[in-house]
Amino acid sequence: MTTRIGVVTFPGSLDDRDARRAVRIAGAEAVPLWHRDKGLHQVDAVVLPGGFSYGDYLRCGAIARFSPVMESVIEQARAGMPVLGICNGFQVLCESHLLPGALTRNDHLHFICRDQRLRVENAATAWTSDYASGDEITVPLKNGEGGYVADERTLDELEAEGRVVFRYLDVNPNGSRRDIAGITNEAGNVVGLMPHPEHAVESLTGPTTDGLGFFTSVLKKLVTHA
């Protein structure tokens, strides 16, 4: 039976089609999920894509967090379903309290778009098992409000528990505390990051294919536990 990975589309989503393509390239079935859906159509994992959900009004991700589909996403994530939040999706995960902290305006106050080097800090999550800790990858980054912030106690806990999944290399592009590019929850099934792995799955269109490992990782985990 084909593994089904849902990709949510909110009003203002930008990268949902790219995420669905990445899922298909990895070998799974990409299932479109609409923000008004009250169920998840029997998917095995969920991707919250990048973009500008609900126009980024109030705060990035603040309105999307209350969309009907998120009720099911939050419930299933707490039950162990793998959930990946990319850029705006990371913001939605923080607003939903599935991940701690918040994403704020870039410290230089400009939108940034570049190919970004990252170091893999945790290869034991549902979305990173095809990497090794210490691997260095390059994927696109594009955001205006991508600075990860949290209080010192939360940052210390993330570090001590190995929940920092990716860290920026060469340059901190947005002022994120401790160069944090992505984090996970305690169970390792929910991962959020600001860079865009779905834009680095084909050599024709991406700077590398380094992002494909996100999608092959979760596919292998789901197949193993099927």
From TrEMBL:
Pfam families from the UniProt entry: GATase_5
Gene3D superfamilies assigned: 3.40.50.880
InterPro entries: Class_I_gatase-like (IPR029062), PRibForGlyAmidine_synth_PurQ (IPR010075)
Catalyses which reaction(s): L-glutamine + H2O = L-glutamate + NH4(+); N(2)-formyl-N(1)-(5-phospho-beta-D-ribosyl)glycinamide + L-glutamine + ATP + H2O = 2-formamido-N(1)-(5-O-phospho-beta-D-ribosyl)acetamidine + L-glutamate + ADP + phosphate + H(+)
Domain of life of the source: Bacteria
Pathway: Purine metabolism; IMP biosynthesis via de novo pathway; 5-amino-1-(5-phospho-D-ribosyl)imidazole from N(2)-formyl-N(1)-(5-phospho-D-ribosyl)glycinamide: step 1/2
EC number: 6.3.5.3, 3.5.1.2
Function in brief: Part of the phosphoribosylformylglycinamidine synthase complex involved in the purines biosynthetic pathway. Catalyzes the ATP-dependent conversion of formylglycinamide ribonucleotide (FGAR) and glutamine to yield formylglycinamidine ribonucleotide (FGAM) and glutamate. The FGAM synthase complex is composed of three subunits. PurQ produces an ammonia molecule by converting glutamine to glutamate. PurL transfers the ammonia molecule to FGAR to form FGAM in an ATP-dependent manner.
UniProt protein name: Phosphoribosylformylglycinamidine synthase subunit PurQ
UniProt gene name: purQ
